[in-house]
C-alpha cells in the first residue's frame, strides 16, 4: 500500500482509514441487520467478518452457559423458569 502512494503520510492515512472501516463493518460494533443498503456489502466483503466469526465460533461453540447476578444485560425469566430454560430457544 505504501509503494502505491506518493508519501508515507498519505499511505499511513489511507491504511488507517481502511483499518477503521474494516473494524467498523466486521459485525462487532453493528450487526448486519443494522446496516442499511450499500453497507451490507461492506460487511460481506470484509475479511475481518470471517476472522471474528471463526474465532468466536471456535472459542464459544460448545461453551456452557451460566446465568449470574452480574450479567451485562439482566433479564427476568418468566413463569418461574430458570435462566437456561428461558434462553434455550435463543441459544439453539
Automatic annotation (TrEMBL):
Keywords annotated in UniProt: Membrane, Transmembrane, Transmembrane helix
Keyword presence, Aminoacyl-tRNA synthetase: no
Cellular component GO terms held in the UniProt record: membrane
Gene Ontology MF terms: ABC-type transporter activity
Residue stretches making up the ABC-2 type transporter transmembrane domain: 5-58
Residues spanning the membrane: 17-41
Pfam families: ABC2_membrane (PF01061)
Location within or outside the cell: Membrane
Membrane topology label: Multi-pass membrane protein
Predominant location category: membrane
Record protein name field: ABC-2 type transporter transmembrane domain-containing protein
Originating species: Fusarium oxysporum f. sp. cepae
Amino acid at each position: 500500500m505504501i509503494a502505491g502512494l506518493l508519501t508515507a503520510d498519505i499511505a499511513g492515512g489511507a491504511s488507517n482509514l481502511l483499518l477503521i472501516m474494516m473494524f467498523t463493518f466486521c459485525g462487532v460494533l453493528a450487526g448486519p441487520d443494522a446496516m442499511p443498503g450499500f453497507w451490507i456489502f461492506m460487511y460481506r466483503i470484509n475479511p475481518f467478518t470471517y476472522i471474528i466469526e471463526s474465532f468466536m465460533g471456535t472459542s464459544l461453540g460448545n461453551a456452557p452457559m451460566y446465568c449470574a447476578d452480574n450479567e451485562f444485560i439482566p433479564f427476568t425469566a418468566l413463569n418461574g423458569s430458570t435462566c437456561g430454560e428461558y434462553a434455550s430457544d435463543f441459544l439453539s
